[in-house]
Amino acid sequence: KNGDCVHVFQTLPDNAVSNYAASLKDKGSLVPALYKVIRENYSDLLEPVCHQLFEFYRSGEPQLQRFTLQFLPELLWSLLSVSAARDPHTSGCIEALLLGIYNLEIVDKDGQSKILSFTVPSLSKPSVYHEPSTFGSMALTEGALSNHGLSRVVYSGPHLQRETFTAQNRFEVLTFLLLCYNAVLSYMTSTSLQSLCQLSSRVCICGYPRQQMRRYKGINARLTVTSEFLVQLITGIHYALCNGEVEVGSKALDDVLYRAQLELFPEALLVGNAIKSSLHGAALKSNNKEGARSIQVEITPTSSRISRNAVTSLSIRGHRWKRHGKTQASGNCHPRPTRYTVHTFSP
């Protein structure tokens, strides 16, 4: 019945695709049924489901693409678990789906390779992560900061098209797919965020002593990971933590940091510990699953006062000195000294 529901998509005219995409969220039994099919690697429905999900993504309709991406964590786990079990024949359709999404995302609408750019925040300009005023105690003036405030742009790409998964390119492709998933995190359902956290824990603890602590009885083989892959997992976990998935998100973050320590991955340790420190003492509510979604960021209140430590000889030159008193009348051999008042700044 659910298969017939999604199969209708192929017969729709172009002007009806948007309405059909919007109606998918009202089919309450559809998403759980698709999760069940993906988790059963030997299901006869897995191949037609993967084919239909790829048709959704290839349509270019944003709602249909997000509908497919919500299953990405579960698809990644199915692929990795089957690869660890060395039974690749059961994951052929999942590999085709993931490679298809990857090859669609690395090119633009004209078929040219995409080059993604990321601007690194500058200390001299405010961002959601910091305010320049917080560095006043370091005697950094606006002029000094501007000398070091050149924006740095990091580029990613072009990415090569892939026709099959190999040991060398597997995590390169999976990391890029997680990047696409994280770009639409605000549209993901609670079920999808929970699946992401479960994926993170399983990938990081399988084959290690913590697997017995977590009482996970899945595969026992150790899965190879990369630092970039863990960083993308942490990004999604951070969002899940701030939007209702506190328990499963906290376990996932601890498990990723546990694996990053074992592998000595500095990037994952830096990002993970920074998020853990920012969440320490924060009022995370486990029932905050409805309404607007966001990530909690601590913002320092702005102040009009200037710290004394931030006043240097360079900054003093820009202030006017008020002159009080008048010079003595001409003819006086000893004119009265002129008094000046230098304006100081309260700490």
UniProtKB/TrEMBL annotation:
<dbReference type="Pfam" id="PF09790">
    <property type="entry name" value="Hyccin"/>
</dbReference>
<dbReference type="GO" id="GO:0046854">
    <property type="term" value="P:phosphatidylinositol phosphate biosynthetic process"/>
</dbReference>
<dbReference type="InterPro" id="IPR018619">
    <property type="entry name" value="Hyccin"/>
</dbReference>
<protein>
    <recommendedName>
        <fullName>Family with sequence similarity 126 member A</fullName>
    </recommendedName>
</protein>
<comment type="similarity">
    <text>Belongs to the Hyccin family.</text>
</comment>
<keyword id="KW-0963">Cytoplasm</keyword>
<feature type="region of interest" description="Disordered">
    <location>
        <begin position="324"/>
        <end position="347"/>
    </location>
</feature>
<dbReference type="GO" id="GO:0005886">
    <property type="term" value="C:plasma membrane"/>
</dbReference>
<dbReference type="GO" id="GO:0072659">
    <property type="term" value="P:protein localization to plasma membrane"/>
</dbReference>
<keyword id="KW-1003">Cell membrane</keyword>
<keyword id="KW-0472">Membrane</keyword>
<dbReference type="GO" id="GO:0005829">
    <property type="term" value="C:cytosol"/>
</dbReference>
